Amino acid sequence: MAFEQKSREMMMPDFSAIRADTGLKEAYEALKKNLEVSPQAPAVVVVSEKGKYAGVLTVEDFMKELRRLYKDACDKPGQGEWIAAYFTHCELMGIKKVSEIMSGKRLSIGAGEKFEKACELILRKKLNALAVVDENSKPVGVIGRRKVLSEIGARMFK
Asked: Would you give per-residue pLDDT tens digits along the chain (158 residues)?
């Protein structure tokens, strides 16, 4: 049951990208806009200052950071007014950069590689999205886990 398609044939060629040194407030807006345009969009691709692939930023990355902030601010016995402490910590989150919370650092697949390899990476590493890059490490598309599920499910349940 091998997939003969190449990653470039299975990827979403339209994707949002932001730089790794972008602040989280701007990154949040980009991710929010991305989801409004297409709820299927798995992530925002993160690029270096030279436009090379650096990682991906997902909703889960933001949620992980919010959980961490909650633990720092509020997860103490007897903590009164936890919501005020939490939002004070959240304000500090705004000074962080995308590179500090992004996932998928340096994990990508070449456009000419088999889609089967993309499926394996997404399943093994529990990724929400996998960037597809050209021979110069510049992002050209994204493969999300929904694509993997739709392709594998279609074969499983013929």
From this structure: 567 889 999 998 888 899 999 988 888 888 888 888 776 666 899 999 999 999 999 888 988 888 887 777 676 666 666 667 777 766 666 678 999 999 877 799 999 999 999 999 999 999 888 999 999 999 999 998 888 998 888 888 87
- All domains in the chain, ordered by first residue: 7-156 (3.10.580.10)
Report d(CA 21, CA 24) in Å as an integer.
Answer: 9
For tokens 């390899």, what's the residue? 117
pTM as predicted: 0.83
- Please give the DSSP secondary-structure letter assigned to residue 11: S
